């Protein structure tokens, strides 16, 4: 049996190898380590009627991304363990703020206004989205460049710390984060290998460009094993907030 020290050495070696990979290969490297996928919908705190505030990049109006997602979903649709994301619900989540019963209206408005001010000098930017891989509960594209999304998320995190901490249960420090766009969610525990093998055939599809000009603060809900939302406020990346 391996000792704890040996296990730590093995994990460190794996982490070092991962960071030597190109960014578009790192999520794939992590995904291939899973023997079992888990039920995405079993998340602490969620009930059928509970809603949550999130900052996200709404991508449902991007035709090239929708076409790429549909092409990949067509190859994954025979897995009953996967719930496919509707093309108009594609998104890149930056950060969860908290459940709607945890954040009052004054905090929400302050969060929107302060984030808008801090994004006043943040220009719009282009992402490339593709390189299909996954997490333990989802099949997802990677969004690059990593640094651009991380910088925007850092603004959101710092504002969340200033306005809401410690009244929500959300972490207010930048933890492990990988920019991604999910196209399917796992709805029950299932062996990973058949899905990993299918995803491998789809990784050669070229990524698509997406222009990001705003981030949205939304009220997110679950609806028939899918996510839907209403926009609370929109922060333009050339400054300003609407809503």
Provide a short characterization of the protein structure.
With 243 residues, the protein is an alpha+beta fold.
Q: What layout of secondary structure does this protein have?
A:
Elements: H1 4-19, H2 23-31, E1 36-37, E2 52-58, H3 63-76, E3 82-84, E4 91-99, H4 105-118, E5 125-134, E6 138-144, H5 146-163, E7 180-186, E8 190-191, H6 193-202, E9 208-212, E10 214-222, E11 227-236, E12 241-242
Antiparallel strand pairs: 1-8, 2-4, 2-10, 3-7, 5-6, 5-9, 6-7, 10-11, 11-12
Helix pairs in contact: 4-5
Rg over C-alpha atoms, rounded to the nearest angstrom = 18 Å
Q: What amount of the residues lies in strands?
A: 25-35%
CATH superfamily, by name, is Cyclic phosphodiesterase
Number of domains: 1
In what order do the strands lie side by side in the largest sheet?
4-2-10-11-12
The residue-averaged pLDDT reads 89
Number of helices: 6
Shape: globular
Low-pLDDT stretches: 6-14, 168-174
CATH topology: Cyclic Phosphodiesterase, Chain: A
**Count of β-strands:** 12
| Main CATH class | Alpha Beta
Protein structure class: alpha+beta
Order of helices and strands: HHEEHEEHEEHEEHEEEE
Largest β sheet strand count, sense and barrel closure = 5 strands, antiparallel
Q: How far apart, in Å, are the first and last alpha carbons?
A: 58 Å
């Amino acid at each position: 049996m391996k000792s704890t020290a040996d296990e730590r050495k093995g994990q460190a070696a794996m982490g070092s190898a991962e960071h030597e990979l190109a960014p578009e290969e790192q999520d794939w490297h992590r995904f291939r380590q899973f023997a079992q996928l888990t039920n995405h919908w079993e998340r602490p705190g969620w009930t059928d009627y509970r809603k949550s505030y999130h900052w996200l990049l709404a991508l449902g109006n991007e035709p090239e991304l929708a076409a790429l997602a549909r092409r990949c979903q067509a190859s994954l649709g025979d897995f009953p363990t996967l719930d496919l994301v509707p093309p108009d619900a594609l998104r890149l989540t930056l950060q969860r703020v908290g459940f709607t019963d945890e954040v009052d209206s004054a905090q929400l408005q302050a969060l929107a206004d302060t984030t808008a001010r801090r994004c006043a000098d943040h220009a719009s930017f282009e992402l490339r989205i593709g390189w299909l891989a996954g997490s333990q509960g989802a099949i997802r594209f990677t969004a690059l460049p990593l640094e651009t999304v991380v910088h925007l998320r850092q603004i959101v995190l710092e504002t969340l710390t200033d306005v809401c901490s410690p009244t929500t249960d959300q972490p207010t420090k930048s933890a492990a984060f990988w920019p991604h766009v999910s196209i399917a969610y796992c709805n029950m525990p299932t062996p990973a290998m058949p899905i990993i093998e299918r995803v491998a055939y789809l990784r050669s599809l070229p990524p698509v460009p997406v222009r990001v000009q705003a981030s949205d603060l939304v009220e997110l809900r679950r609806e028939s094993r899918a996510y839907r939302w209403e926009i609370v406020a929109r922060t333009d990346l050339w400054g300003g907030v609407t809503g």
